[in-house]
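debug: dumping io for the single-chain case to check the tokenizer round-trip. Nothing else runs in this session.
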Amino acid sequence: MVNRPEIRVADDREALAQMAAEEFALRADEAIRAKGAFAVALSGGSTPKELYARLASERQPFRDRIAWNKVHFFWGDERHVPPDDPQSNFRMAQETMLSKLPIPADNIHRILAEKADAADAAAAYEQTLREFFRPPAGEWPRFDLVLLGLGPEGHTASLFPGNTVASDPSRWVAAPWVEKFHTYRITLTPAVLNHADQAMFLVAGADKAEIVSEVIQGADRPEELPAQAIRPVSGRLIWLLDRAAASKLS
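debug: decoded output
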């Protein structure tokens, strides 16, 4: 890949969740001190779920450490389902974390994926981002942190091999057809993800070791391995891995 990411390895999934929570809290504190707010794009999946549970846990220090009323939550991608659907990324975050923390309702900016047309949901979310970030003309929104996972075929967010999300460089949010699941998804585009202050992958499990190695160390093939398209323009790229997921890195 063009840029070399920062790679951190935890002993196991529990240690990985702790490492991710510490990084989340650090980024939140820095952004709030500098700008008065922290904008984060959440990811779906089992590994982020463990992070969210830790952030919301009464047995952990993060509930009191983070100024939750100054945190604004967005989503990197969403399934084309209502918010109460078991597959919904919003529902997972809501049940695991958001409902358990003192977060103002206006700070939760979900994708309206219940819209009949996924393209309409994407357009509405792009407008949400424009109204929140209000960047100068021709510039991009700048998240303080985007959380990302990694699929077994190298996808991240809802950027799957073979889709054409990156073909329109002006788009902030897209609604690609995902042939693997025979459905549309709604996703932030690579351009938006790459303008974040920090992009952070969370990956756990031996079943991800091969694809982790291929994405980080393999030939540059972002069309086939969309996770390789995450190359922050001026921000940091961090991979947080458990030892099993990192086992095939040299």
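debug: round-trip ok. The first helix runs from residue 13 to 35.
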